[in-house]
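We treat protein structure as text, and this decision shapes the records that our systems exchange. Because each token names a local backbone shape, the row as a whole describes the fold. For reference, a complete record is included directly beneath this paragraph.
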Amino acid sequence: MKKEIYFLGGPKIFLRPIEVEELRKTAAIIEKWVNDETVTYFMFTGQKPKNLKQVMSDLEEQLESKDNVIFLVQDQKTKKSIGYAGLYEINSTAKKAELRILIGEKDFWGKGCGSETVKIITYYGFDRLNLNRIYLGFTADNKGAAKAYEKAGYSYEGTLKEDIYRNSRYYDSLRMAILKKNYYKNFYKSDVEKFKQKI
């Protein structure tokens, strides 16, 4: 049995690459998450059902792109896959990328796993990829997401009015971002100590 490779970690979670040989298994886990209306309640994901073949196709396409870096998020104690996250549409000229995250295992909600994942991905983007700006978007009513992003140092940049339609209504989308200079001033010193640890 192949030993799992862990890339970066913190006190609660660690990030690992999605292996080609376990693509079907990983896609099956993600299929469960993206078809769960509670998990996708505030997301555009979930507008239409997705089967295993569709999830695998999406995953393969995203993983093959040199503009994306995607990780499985796993719990430190149980080694259970609880979500996935990464940096998408990496622009090497402008040195920017979009952060996306989905914590699909509801038992791990409200325990700081999402916040820690955002912080590790942010640290990775600046420390390893030399990005200058990381941005993200989410539904305005998703207060949990807003709290996690603010905790990681992201600042509000704008609102897209009535941008997403879910649950028989329109939602505004919020845009937030963090610049490298602000991250290094306020967060890098503490983050490098937490996230450089061996797993």
Observations:
- The first strand starts at residue 8 and ends at 9.
